[in-house]
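Risk register update: the risk that structure generation would not scale has been downgraded. Supporting records follow, first protein first.
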Amino acid sequence: MSEILRVLKTFVAYLKRPDLYPELGRKIVKNTVNRGNAFKGKDKTNSWAASKSISQQEVISQLFGFEMSAFKTDFQEVLRNSEQKEKDCPIKMGGAGALELIYYSCEFTKAQHVIETGVAYGWSSLAALLSLEKRNGTLYSSDMPYLAQDGDQYVGCVVPEDLKKNWKLFRFADKESLPKIFAETASFDILHYDSDKSYNGRMWAYDEMYVRLRKGGVFISDDIGDNSAYQDFCEKNNIDTKVVEFEGKYVGVFIK
């Protein structure tokens, strides 16, 4: 699909969804007036992240006291079936992230309430739900509809049906989804951010989510090298964060 056709198709899809008009307005501003916002402080933060980064295995051991190799052994069949579902999916979405980090953060906190932003195939959702089902906990997910790809039916496709009973999926932009989620649950054990990549979008969501993270809860943010929002947030709040280098990108994680 050409870029012009993709933009046109997306715009028409927005017009058909009045509930998404607020996000359409934000998108227009972000892509015109605030175009540089997505990369604000990127060089500074990539240098900072590189100087701090360690492996996912080291972080899981240091923060949570687990050996991460057990994850792929314990859930071998589930992961194999989910990988096949991704291969069979006719549209391309975001791939799997640091699944072990998410799973063992849930195990460490004995999580009952987890919130994530960004779903796509549902790999991070799967990692959280594999832990949550042990305690009959709930995963609350915010995910913007895939307006240009007609891909809504495939969102979360790698999550097995038997795990979906512990999952509540909100299909709006974060600024609409998060207030709805907070109205249902006031405190969370795990926060996983992987949605709006802009500096302003991150800073708004980080602030909103952090105050609802319980003491001893775990905060995880993907792709922190896109701009300096995560670094600035941690410095503003005097947070000592770990940085994971994962497949050429950086993930931030800390215990509150």
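Supporting record for the second protein:
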Amino acid sequence: MPASTPAVTVERDGHVLLMGLNRPAKRNAFTKQMLSELSAAYGLLESDDDLWCGVLFAHGDHFTGGLDMLDVGAELASGKFDAPEGGRDPWRLDGPWSKPVVAAAHGWVMTLGIELLLAADIRVAAEDTRFAQYEIRRGIYPFGGATFRFPQQAGWGNAMRWILTGEEFDAAEAHRIGLVQELATDGPAAIARATEIATLIAGKSAPLGVRTVFASAHLAHEQGESAAIERLRPDIAGLFSTADGAEGIQSFIERRDAVFTAR
């Protein structure tokens, strides 16, 4: 790939950041360049207050064939990944996170591709998508969060069924177990639907409210429900004191959609 060609495209659409895996000739197999650019894209999403939601998708016929082991093998063997300055972990393991991500999958979703989906908050897949958590058949294991996110989101038995065998499964099974929330007819339709959901979040949901939801959920996950419960009333009082809180009440009184400004 020429140096001028981005391995991950980044495009703003209002308050939505569109992040596209862009190595289609190699089934979007991840190189160090792709990992670095996706890290930078996630860093931008989190740091820019004018971005309220992200979309992760892929150009070409496949979401990703996994890692390009010839390119990243030595780095994996060292047990570390160096993110660029301002970047964030591509698997979103360096939380907390405050901006939601909607992912669209199609074609092959292999190994780390499943973990990228698990790291997103809402997932849409084309009906012809094929999944495989294949690491166990290569003498390694999933290191991007599948060992805990997959059981959390799909249930223990469903996760172990696919992690321990490395077998391929289809979009209908992914939907059944909760790996994806919606199915679309094909890849373009999946991307369009994911973008529609992200635009709905960015256009209708109060951004400060979304961030507070994320903070509460992360707190409950990391410190337990009691810690999150202690923050419920202080957090809601804080939101009511914001300009967006006042706008939410006024829009209710006036029976119109609220116009939020993240203030």
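The CA atoms of residues 95 and 160 lie 25 Å apart. On this basis the risk owner (M.S.) recommends closing the item.
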